[in-house]
Write a structure and sequence with these properties.
Blueprint (H helix, E strand, L loop, with lengths): L2 H104 L14
């Protein structure tokens, strides 16, 4: 083989190697871009899920807060009703006692008149 043919083959091989290297570099950069996009998408999804979780937690806390407030309001209302019933009952009892006292004070000897409720 003559030197020109050998040099030509070496040049062709070098050119082919350069082309292959360029193509490999381009493919590597393409894969790197795709990996970067996948990583970014995963990061965004993770952030979105975290935000949704935080939002759900906040909503749950609000719901619990409303439920506790509602229950507390019902308990206070029931306590007020019970207190009013007790006060009303005590007033009725005091009124009946005063009425009996007035009856006893108005009768000679202060004896009670038997009525159906107190009859033996």
């Amino acid at each position: 083989m003559d030197t020109k043919k050998i040099n030509s083959k070496i040049d062709d091989a070098a050119s082919n190697a350069k082309d292959v290297t360029a193509k490999a570099g381009e493919r590597f950069r393409g894969v790197a871009r795709k990996v970067s996009q996948v990583a970014e998408t995963a990061k965004e999804k993770a952030e979105t899920m975290a935000e949704k979780g935080e939002h759900r937690l906040h909503e749950t806390a609000e719901t619990v807060g409303h439920a506790v407030t509602e229950i507390a309001t019902k308990v206070v209302h029931a306590a007020q009703e019970t207190a009013e019933k007790v006060v009303h009952g005590a007033k009725e009892l005091a009124h009946k006692a005063q009425h009996r006292g007035d009856e006893l004070a108005g009768k000679p000897g202060g004896k009670l008149k038997p009525d159906k409720r107190n009859a033996p």
